[in-house]
Amino acid sequence: MPTNVTLPTHVGQGLVGSEQFTFLADVIPQLVWITDNQGFHTYFNQRWTDFTGFVLADSVGPDMWNNLLHPDDRDRAREVWGRSLATGNDYSIEYRFKAKDGSFRWFLGQALPRRGANGEIIAWFGTCTDIQEQHQMREQLEAAYSDLEAKVMFRTLDLEREVRELREAAGR
């Protein structure tokens, strides 16, 4: 297990041991994270460290996570996460994370609560999936659609003008 990763005690119980969990969390192409029931981060996988440049010890605390988000996404992210913590509802959000080189990339953040025998939340298991390319494609498609819409509108106006001129020339 990497030295910067300390698994919480609830990971490693059951069918998958902590070594297997860590291996799985490190080979999938997502940033993987775990929090306790209050939303305090207790685990980040190696991809988190590779992307952000922060090890677990540097990544804990109530504001650390939010400080790595793009300033335009922070309030919304805090609100959505707070709502999930308060209600126990699944967490899902798109936001931009800061890479260790200072650039930002779009991610889809998702998390599900793990519940105890009495239904109480004992931890949150989450991932952040890089959706930068999909986000750029969506923006390009929206721009192309807007451009096409404008071209159709101008062409329609041109055709209406030509029809009007033809009617006037025909004496109608």
In words, what does this structure look like?
With 172 residues, this protein is an alpha+beta fold. The protein contains six helices and five strands, in the order H-E-E-H-H-H-H-E-E-E-H. A five-stranded antiparallel beta sheet has the order 2-1-5-4-3, sandwiched between helices. It is elongated and about 85 Å long. The model is unreliable at 1-5 (pLDDT under 50).
In short:
The protein is α+β, with helices and mostly antiparallel strands.
Helix-strand pattern, N to C? Answer: HEEHHHHEEEH
What structural class do helix, strand and pairing data support? Answer: alpha+beta
- Mean pLDDT comes to 84
Number of helices: 6
What does the overall shape look like? elongated
What's the total count of β strands?
5
Distance between the termini: 85 Å
Low-pLDDT ranges = 1-5
Q: What characterizes the major β-sheet?
A: 5 strands, antiparallel
Rg over C-alpha atoms, rounded to the nearest angstrom: 25 Å
Share of helical residues = 40-55%
In which order are the strands of the major sheet placed? 2-1-5-4-3
- Strand percentage lies at 15-25%
Topology readout:
Layout: H1 18-27, E1 30-36, E2 41-44, H2 46-52, H3 56-59, H4 64-67, H5 74-87, E3 91-98, E4 104-115, E5 121-130, H6 132-169
Antiparallel strand pairs: 1-2, 1-5, 3-4, 4-5
